[in-house]
Amino acid sequence: MPLARQRLLLLLFCILLIAIAGVLLDRPLALWVHDRLYQTTLYLVAMQVFALYDLAGVALLVVTLLALVIRRSRPAGWGNDFVTAATAGLAALIVAESLKIAIGRPAVYPDFLVSGVTGLRPFHKGVFPSATTAIVTAIVSVAWRLRPRARALWAAVFLAAPLAILITNSHWLSDVIAGGWLGAALGVWALRVSHLRTRASELP
Q: Rounded to an integer, what distance in angstroms lies between the CA atom of residue 106 and that of residue 121?
């Protein structure tokens, strides 16, 4: 099957998952989490984990600066890997935050759980898609490809983010699914750009 068709099918499957989650799963899951997990030990731990992930935007800038320094004392590809991952993460942050404003989806808390608000408000600050999930997925997508020996670590980093987000009702399930797809797509894009730039630099 051609690569373009595979990507189109993957996109359509992701849209289907988002639609199913939005219509059938988002509100029941949010209510269940609020009734069963709110203020439990698991909830409090997840809040701390989510807070750490929320610093990802600042960490990306630090990583980029470190990569520029490390590149002088390491093989060329070592620093480039950091830059590629940082680029993917920053792109995910920018695109996700832009979509949040454009779509204007109300938050689980307090909009839904307190006020019962669920309708979209385009061009108002919203929560769709999850920027944290997008950033983490983008960075992990790059790291998964470029640093395969640490894939167990990347898997743990990737799984912890959406779990913490859902346990704390920080996002709807469909927000997390959309953020995951967006991050993966931008991770692939960053890898592609890095590959093309490397090939161009090797030309005589």
A: 8
Which sign does the torsion angle of CA 80, 56, 113, 168 carry?
A: positive
pTM for this prediction: 0.88
Separation of alpha carbons 67 and 122, rounded Å: 38
148, 70 Cβ separation under 8 angstroms: no
Residue 26 corresponds to which amino acid?
Answer: D
Question: Residue 156: left (phi > 0), alpha (psi -120 to 50), or beta?
Answer: alpha
Contact by Cβ (8 Å): 75, 105 = no
Mean pLDDT for each consecutive 10-residue tract of the chain (204 residues)?
79 94 96 94 92 73 63 54 84 94 95 90 93 93 91 92 94 97 94 77 56
* Exposure string for 73-109, b = 16+ CB within 10 A, e = fewer: eeeeeebbbbbbbbbbbbbbbebbeebbeebbbbbbb
**For residues 182 and 15, what is the distance between their CA atoms, to the nearest angstrom?**
11
Single out the residue of 164, 169, 88, 91 nearest to residue 127, CA to CA.
169
